[in-house]
């Protein structure tokens, strides 16, 4: 945990300073391009995090691994936060570029659906008194909702949308200058490390909480069994 937190904060500090101070403005977007240094990493984390949630759900349903259930439970609020930041920064970028805060095109709508899937999973796993039932229900929802991830990814290719197509992950050379691409990649690495650190910290806290509850329950049973 200390190494992960230190790496996340160091890389993120470097990336943010590079992006906000030393990288040049875009020739078309001007200073507005700096929103991209948060928006793009959050979009990748929203999709990548949900892919991780689907993998944890498979581990939960097939192998019944309790740590997979616990990690999925703690992952969904963090994934929802990343998706919310993606939507918010996208709206901030869309207003000066498109002249509107929101359009119901395929990319934006599918990301909004992804946000609701994150919220739905976070609520569903906590809606049952029995944690195992909640974990099973949340795993099924996560796997069904995973069909939305490729829709988010390829929506700009499948439909005519206002959102620009892939600029970094397309085949061949990225469609942006290295002075913008490199700080974007450093920011992405920093946000990814921070995302992992937060999820790991939440999972560790949940494991410790479960152990404390088990010890309290065992102590209460021993006290009940002890004759007066």
Automatic annotation (TrEMBL):
It is found in: Cell inner membrane; Membrane. Keywords: Cell inner membrane, Cell membrane, Cytochrome c-type biogenesis, Membrane, Transmembrane, Transmembrane helix, Transport. The lineage of its organism: Bacteria, Pseudomonadati, Pseudomonadota, Alphaproteobacteria, Acetobacterales. The keyword Cell inner membrane applies. It holds the Pfam family Cytochrom_C_asm. This is Heme exporter protein C. The chain crosses the membrane at residues 43-63, 75-94, 106-125, 137-160, 180-201. It comes from the Bacteria. The keyword Transmembrane applies. Residues 9-163 form the Cytochrome c assembly protein domain. It is a multi-pass membrane protein. It comes from Roseomonas alba. InterPro entries: Cyt_c_assembly (IPR002541), Cyt_c_biogenesis_CcmC (IPR003557), Cyt_c_biogenesis_CcsA/CcmC (IPR045062). Belongs to the CcmC/CycZ/HelC family. Its main location: membrane. Required for the export of heme to the periplasm for the biogenesis of c-type cytochromes.
